Amino acid sequence: MDLVQSPSEVEKSKPAVSLSGEGVNHQQHDHGTRPRPKSRARAFEETLVKYNLEVRGIQRVEEQEKVQIGWLAYLQVFGLWLSVNLAPNNITLGMLGPAIFELSFRDASLCAVFGAIMGSVPVAWIATWGPLSGLRSMVFSRYAMGWWPSKLIVVLNIVLMLGYSVLVCIIGGQILSAVSPNGSMSVVVGIIVVAVITWLITIFGISIIHYYERFAFLPQLIVNSILFGVAAKHFDLTTPSAGDVATIRGNRLSFLSLCLSAAITYATLAGDYFVYWSTGASRPLIFLATLASLSLSFTFALIPGIALASGIATYQPYSDAWNGSQGGSGSGALLVAGFEPLGRFGEFCAVIVALGGIANTIPPTYSSGIDFQTLGRQFECIPRVFWNTLGVIIYTICALAGRNSLAVIFTNLLALMGYWVAIWVAILVEECLFFRHGSQGYNWAVWDTRKKLPLGIAAITAFLVGWVGAILCMAQVWYIGPIARLVGSHGADMGNYIGFSWAALVYPPLRWWEMRKFGR
């Protein structure tokens, strides 16, 4: 069966439902929640259903509501992540290797690829829990973090989702501004264009998102290949990394950590897009399709960015583009400069790249709407469409305000967000392996019953201890931890690894005590 069913197909094949959740009685399957009063919000939801828009929020998708899938669905998992990840923000991320960390093409490429693969592994693992649990990733988190501590994770994730969207909007705005005649379009207009198109797609819900992401990677794949071919003669593949041995090692580790952070942050939404799949879906195939797609797409996006930035020091037009454009770092202008030999067609290709950011902004925009509902029952009563709209407004305003500080936002936001996600992943993995003994140890029916979920004492303590380790080992523009400072002249960012390790060491004994003391 295809990954996405139309409403008419669903009616013929009930009890399954479409990915958009039409025809689902949310109250019937909302374990432990109070019935929603008839309100304007509820009336608005009914209007959305009438027009086949998704209204389901954080409610668990029961087995009788799910769809059966065939082999084609696993190919579409591959296509989904390929579309999401072949985006201009990842090309820009690659540029930071030579431009900010002063790494050679070889060093930056190796760090980028291996960092992305390492970060993609937990994403692929969490994606497999969507069909099994029928729960969104932030709701699934309650089974380890507990009811109240999980709300802290949700707040951090909302910041993460909206922060990523800020970056993509700025980069898209830079590119659209750079290809306009004499820069006549400001970055402001480009930011608004990307944000509005993203909003229009996300309000329709998960069915339309799957349709869009199924094909969005094709034009990006083509224009990225063209970019590599047309700009290759200006790549600097021989200049070594700058600095002494210790500084180079520190910069390698910091850039690897940055690329790991870019990948691992998908973990917080990875399961959201497969909750309508039946529990019989193959977890190994979902894992492999996700891991392969993320690894390949990161490689195909990061390497062109690294190659373009390697030419900044040796090719004057690239240097001028990086240093002299609207928006600070000039990543968008540098990308346009790579297409410049193709003239008007090159400008067209650059526009395609800019619009490719929409595919990357859609998942965080959609999932942030779900996350808002996870904050409490009052939030849950407000339709997802409202929260998606609010999220778009917030990150559009932030993108407009921060459009001249892209490089600073990029390096600081990615690293800081990667720290907490790595710590969170450590807690989830250990809860599954040591205390749930695999998937059979979860009672999915209590997802919304506070008194049957863990208290979260062990989780929040381990989370905070992990943060202490991350702070001691972080290396950012505004702060270098005492341990990170020991490596090279600029420090080495080890926050991801130390934060993960410290949380992983502390959580098991605390969780054992918590279960013995409180029985849950």
Automatic annotation (TrEMBL):
What molecular function terms (GO) are annotated for this protein?
Answer: transmembrane transporter activity
Q: Where is the signal peptide?
A: none
Q: Which subcellular locations apply to this protein? A: Membrane
Q: Which residue intervals make up region (Disordered)?
A: 1-40
Keywords carried by this UniProt record: Membrane, Phosphoprotein, Transmembrane, Transmembrane helix, Transport
Write out the GO cellular component annotations: fungal-type vacuole membrane; plasma membrane
User: Main localization of the protein?
Assistant: membrane
According to the record, the segments passing through the membrane are 108-132, 152-176, 188-209, 253-274, 286-309, 385-402, 408-434, 455-479, 494-513
Family matches, as Pfam families? Transp_cyt_pur (PF02133)
Name the source's superkingdom. Answer: Eukaryota
**Annotated GO biological process:** nucleobase transport
Q: Which InterPro entries match?
A: Pur-cyt_permease (IPR001248), Pur-cyt_permease_Fcy2/21/22 (IPR026030)
Please give, as recorded in its UniProt entry, the membrane topology of this protein. Answer: Multi-pass membrane protein
**Database matches in PANTHER family:** PURINE-CYTOSINE PERMEASE FCY2-RELATED (PTHR31806), TRANSPORTER, PUTATIVE (AFU_ORTHOLOGUE AFUA_2G03000)-RELATED (PTHR31806:SF8)
Q: Which family does it belong to?
A: Belongs to the purine-cytosine permease (2.A.39) family.
| Name of the protein in question | Nucleoside transporter
Q: Which organism is it from?
A: Endocarpon pusillum
